[in-house]
Amino acid sequence: MPAPLVSVVIPTRNRAAYLDVALASLVSQQLDGPYELVVVDDCSDDRTPTVVRKWSVQYVRAERHRGPNAARNAGVSATTAPLVAFVDDDIYAPPRWLHALLEGAGRYPDADAFGGPIRARFEGSTPSSCGREDPPITTLDLGDHDAEAQIVWGANMAIRRSALERIGPFDEALGVGSGDEEDWLRALRAAGGKIVYLAAAGLDHRRAGSDAGLVALTAAAYRRGQAARASDQRRDAAPGLLSELRVLGGCAWHGVRFACPQGAIMGAHSAGRVVQALRAREHASARVRTR
Q1: What's the gap between Cα 263 and its chain centre?
Q2: CA 265, CA 254: separation in Å to the nearest integer?
């Protein structure tokens, strides 16, 4: 068989229903040439293997839970194409998404990594919004035209294999959700690499059923806040605790002033950052006491 033009790696863990929708969209891509799909299962205990068999795509399973970066590395090792695309298991990719990604990579031969728009898509009952805040899940919108970017996100990202070989694998020591892909992309830029945002290569980031409700979105925002603060701390870029508390107060004000349920979600994200900041302060004090 002819060699694939692009490989698509889908890390997943215990989200069979989301994965089913993602794979349905990915196996139906309209591309003038072969491509390969590989699901990397981070030790799921749900119906994930059954879903993968349904769509007859390549399957790699970890024997223990190791996080998204380990799954990305395993996917890279299991694929062969010169361009490796990464998506999350909760996306829907329009039929021409992969074509736009591959065509864009061809138009920018000097670029090493690419990303595209990530649109929030809620299916079912979800909290109302006053329209003054960003969607409560990861999105990316850098405009309607291609542009060089500082960062893109792992839900819609592609990297040349040559860049992966040059920079090295994703750091598997990072905790789940703690700026995993971000650290690799920063290392790429520090080494002179280039990231390009491809405006036509957009996909949807889904939340369905109870995951689209206020309780689930608030809990997820809290975890993302902790992870974001931990990532900032690793890079010595975290703001002071007083600044974090001001943001938390602003979120509370927003929710009350505009009667906006999204204020609770934003507040949960900010609270996660505050809690992480307090934990870091406690750890630092403990180290001082033990000296």
Answers
A1: 23
A2: 11
Instruction: For residue range 92-128, list pLDDT tens digits in order.
Output: 999 999 999 999 999 999 999 999 999 999 998 888 8
Alpha-carbon gap, residue 72 to 261, rounded angstroms: 35
Cα angle: 104, vertex 110, 113; to 5 degrees: 60
* CA atoms within a 13 Å half-sphere pointing along the CA-CB vector of 241: 9
Q: What is the CATH number of domain 6-208?
A: 3.90.550.10
CA distance 250 to 248: 5
From the list 288, 62, 92, the residue with the least C-alpha distance to 208 is: 92
Give 215-270 pLDDT, tens digit per residue: 999 999 999 899 888 888 888 889 999 999 999 999 999 988 888 888 899 999 99
Domain boundaries, the chain: 6-208, 213-290
| Dihedral (CA of 133, 135, 139, 143) sign | negative
- Strands 35-41 and 118-123, bridge-based pairing: unpaired
The one-letter amino acid code at 166 reads R
Using one digit for the tens of pLDDT, what is the confidence trace for 57-72?
A: 999 999 999 999 999 9
Q: What is the DSSP letter of 143?
A: -
**What is the phi/psi pair of residue 106, to 5°?**
-70, -30
Q: pTM score > 0.70 for this model?
A: yes
